[in-house]
């Protein structure tokens, strides 16, 4: 079954080193479980900019379009921080989302029992936390027109962005969230600022309509984005699935991740619409960035990248068993007391990237 | 000195009951410290809607314009939740901000030693926390045009909001933040999404220019809004002054408030530009909402409203000594172990709104 076309894009910073550990797991799957992937590796971010003059070269987009799934590392670094907009490494991920139509960004925030103490929140507040943020990721203020910085007649500058959502854009991402809620605890919270924003008013109306018409079994509630930020800090366990726009989802998903205290553990998936044959574009990436401060030191946590690969197996290849096996291996290694520096706690042993990888492979 | 024109707008929910405790302090100041205010009371929010047909009647705006300072309670409640946009109680505060030109919303997040344990964050993470968020409050996506929900030629709906900032709008609120940073620890973090938003790009540029030209002594750094949300949860004490747009400031200031764990304690000030004589419009309000679930039960915490009044004395009337006296009285009462329900902890005594007010008056 070698028609699992997988594009691997390690990117910048710690991307390549954590991806190396995933490659070892892929090799192991090939040898031991006779699963083989048609694997290609490509360039993105600063790495692509230096080699090919663009943070997201056309060849990378073409390969991503041809692949069944993309495993993305991370992009960016101080080296490229002062470049103009269209050269910045972040464009790598933004362009891929847009060109592949990856409109639903799934961001789980999960606290594994061995890591309860890693959180800055009290243990009781986060123990057992397991929520999923569904963030719209090809619309809203990230792409809306008009946008730009212009000079007004009086000679002063003015910066403009447009938050715009059509009802179809809202409906399709809402359906992804509702489906997930149905499979989980049946509870969903839709977030906006309907008290201030017009697009928020439409967001609330459309989500309510879809809910009533197609998901009457899901318990839907609405919350303002400022209150949601507050509640994620006060009582994160009240949530199951949270649905939000691109920009609110950006802040809220990072906040939820921070609440877990284990950023180096969290994967994400970004999905497109299924075509007639059920095939959908999808990209998987850890939520940690390129972490330039620790890149090349061999101390980065490979778990988030590996768990992103597990999400990929589950969502893109239907390999639930293999996904669960990888997740269980990671959890066992943590329960055994091994930790990379980012998730260290009292009574645990600090190891580097590859020793962590070794231990996970041994578990497998 | 009876020319301290003060407009009191209790509003809805717990607004009137916590305002009652402030009125007692005002009476005490009159009797004991011979400070008298020319005090008027007005209607806003649902209360104004019911009495006068608008959540922010013209007469309220006129009185606010004529006053030296406005002490605002809180607005809103489930009763008015399904009203159309232009009738909603929230319009009360939005219209006042706009008509009075209150562009700088100051939101302190402070953890008093007796309340360290009230936070959902670990004591070490929040002990001694003392930061100030300066939120732009008359611009951005809250007011930008075009905005609205329209029907497209294909019959589908589309919601639009516009995030727009001119360099003057950015500069004036940045100056407020820089001034504050200068008086505090000299550190300021400006927040935007310059990696994604054009207005964010301008925001970063203008703040950098003002900083370099006028506040070279302030240590300025820039942070993306998603990262700031994360950092407020992970290590809130890294911040001193945070500067943000209206919408990012909305989320981040509520998050910072949640991090303190004592929402019922936090005041805020919203300031306009000083005129030639140095007089500026200003409105002070607790950050907690109208809390309809506990309204009328006599259990609401009056501290935030009272501390808002202390901010008013400091910022609008230059009465530093009286402001500090009120703040000290509140802190002493808490140190003595009295708590309203919202900030209860082990070993403390639960009291209602008026007993808390009594205790503070006794301290004074
Ligand atoms: C890198 C950046 C453009 C991106 C975003 O804002 O979407 C990131 O923060 C994310 O959440 O994936
Ligand atoms: C009530 C609402 C319109 C308001 C806002 O979004 O500005 C509130 O959340 C605030 O922060 O004062």
TrEMBL record, chains A, B:
Highest taxon of the lineage: Bacteria
Q: Which UniProt keywords apply?
A: Amino-acid biosynthesis, Branched-chain amino acid biosynthesis, Cytoplasm, Leucine biosynthesis, Magnesium, Manganese, Metal-binding, NAD, Oxidoreductase
Report the locations given in the UniProt record. Answer: Cytoplasm
Isopropylmalate dehydrogenase-like domain mapped to chain residues: 5-360
Q: In which pathway does it act?
A: Amino-acid biosynthesis; L-leucine biosynthesis; L-leucine from 3-methyl-2-oxobutanoate: step 3/4
The cofactor note reads: Binds 1 Mg(2+) or Mn(2+) ion per subunit.
**Any keyword NAD?**
yes
Q: Which residues bind NAD(+)?
A: 77-90, 289-301
**Catalysis: reaction(s):** (2R,3S)-3-isopropylmalate + NAD(+) = 4-methyl-2-oxopentanoate + CO2 + NADH
Q: In Gene Ontology terms, what is a biological process of this protein?
A: L-leucine biosynthetic process
- Which residues take part in binding Mg(2+)? 226, 250, 254
Query: Which Pfam families does its entry note?
Result: Iso_dh
One Gene Ontology CC term in the entry: cytosol
Q: What are the residue positions of the site described as Important for catalysis?
A: 142, 193
Q: E.C. number, please?
A: 1.1.1.85
Note the InterPro entries from the entry.
IsoCit/isopropylmalate_DH_CS, IsoPropMal-DH-like_dom, Isopropylmalate_DH
An example Gene Ontology molecular-function term: 3-isopropylmalate dehydrogenase activity
Does the keyword field hold NAD?
Answer: yes
Tell me the function of this protein: Catalyzes the oxidation of 3-carboxy-2-hydroxy-4-methylpentanoate (3-isopropylmalate) to 3-carboxy-4-methyl-2-oxopentanoate. The product decarboxylates to 4-methyl-2 oxopentanoate.
Describe its partners and assembly state. Answer: Homodimer.
Known PANTHER family for this protein?
A: 3-ISOPROPYLMALATE DEHYDROGENASE (PTHR42979:SF1)
Q: What name does this protein carry?
A: 3-isopropylmalate dehydrogenase
